[in-house]
Amino acid sequence: MTAHFDLRNDRSAPIGYFVHHQGRGHAERCAALVQALPRSRPVTIFCARDDIFPALPPNARVERVPSLFEPTGEERHADWVATPETLHCAPLGWPGIRTAMGRIAGWFAEADPALMICDVSAEVAQLARICSVPHVKVLQHGLRDDSGHRAAYDGAAGLLVPCDARLAQPDWTPAMRAKSCFAGGLGVTMAQPDRDAARARLGVPGDARLIVVQSGGGGTGFASAPIAVGARAVPEATWITIGTVARDWHATEPANLRHDGWVENAADYLAAADLVVASTGNTTCHQILAAGRPWLAVPEWRYFDEQVEKARALDAAGVATWRPHMPSSAQAWRHALDIATATHDPVRQDSMLRPDAARHAAIWIESLCARLREGTPHAVTIHGD
């Protein structure tokens, strides 16, 4: 049976939320935003995984759908048919994609939602628009001026941007910015561990210089060889890596380098560090900004050069020093680390974060829902529940 809501005065119409399951940032900011929404607002989260989310409130549920890009072996490939420029990941003959999109479209018809939030998929965003459901598109960094992304952005009722406005890319148009909600720090814990206590937990002496190398969870991580070159270039420092490290057979690793792998207490490492070398995934970025440490930002490979453009923006805003790849010699390492230290501005780093980012985004979402109910293009004041 199809639900029908009076969108002119009903604040209990459901919201849909598509969450990409690569990395953790998408799920973490989803959980933070959903926690800040009114408990009267039902939220259905569509995701290929249900085990990546922090605690969700009782008004939210996760509906697992097949992955939109991982084959199962049941595909009937027809790659000789060209993909139109308005789409990115839309191969023919994939039953998983058909099932996922069918479930989402079926939910649109049954639930009569107030809004669909897409984090992230240009195809799901366009599906919402085709199904006459207003959508909010999460806007990420990267070279996304192609027809597919622009169709998703142009057709969106609003854009949710999980960073400070000073990190906006130059190519984000005035029209895009006008309908954007900037929420720097959304989904990231601002509270930081005590430095000395963190060092004690990690077994690092209080007077040691500590350089932490952090890679994100959405890719293959950094290679070990350049990190070994860095550790040899700065032998007086202790070097610790966290996250995935791709081991190079030719890496000659010195004794001052240790690999701790994937950890659940990354905040301890950042609090203990004197300097951080890290990739530029959204969660990683905001963790480092919250810690207020000198930062050499080195992007990992991502689609559409997402991390490259994020690194450029961080450098331009004066909150990190970026390099397009790991330094490849001892002198290059020392030079990059010296610049990162000399240009460090912890006050500016802290200003990139909103302690109320989730509440700010939730009030914006509710205001947008009210505008859509009332059929007005003008802002509607909403007071948080």
Please specify the SSE layout and strand pairing.
Blueprint: E1 15-19, H1 25-36, E2 43-47, E3 60-64, H2 95-111, E4 115-119, H3 122-130, E5 135-138, H4 147-154, E6 158-161, H5 174-178, E7 180-182, H6 195-202, E8 209-214, E9 222-223, H7 224-233, E10 237-242, E11 245-246, E12 257-259, H8 266-272, E13 275-278, H9 282-291, E14 295-297, H10 306-316, E15 321-322, H11 330-342, H12 346-351, H13 357-374
Parallel strand pairs: 1-2, 1-4, 2-3, 4-5, 5-6, 6-7, 8-10, 8-13, 9-11, 10-12, 13-14, 14-15
Helix pairs in contact: 1-13, 3-4, 6-8, 7-11
What would you note in describing this structure?
The protein is an alpha/beta fold and 385 residues long. 35% of the residues lie in helices and 15% in strands. It contains 13 helices and 15 strands. It has a 7-stranded parallel β-sheet with strand order 3-2-1-4-5-6-7, with helices on both faces. A 6-stranded parallel β-sheet has the order 12-10-8-13-14-15, with helices on both faces. Strands 9-11 form a two-stranded parallel sheet. Strand 1, helix 1 (25-36) and strand 2 (43-47) form a beta-alpha-beta unit. Helix 1 packs across helix 13. The longest helix is centred in the last third of the chain and has 18 residues, at 357-374. The radius of gyration is 22 Å and the shape is globular. Mean pLDDT is 94; it is low at 1-8.
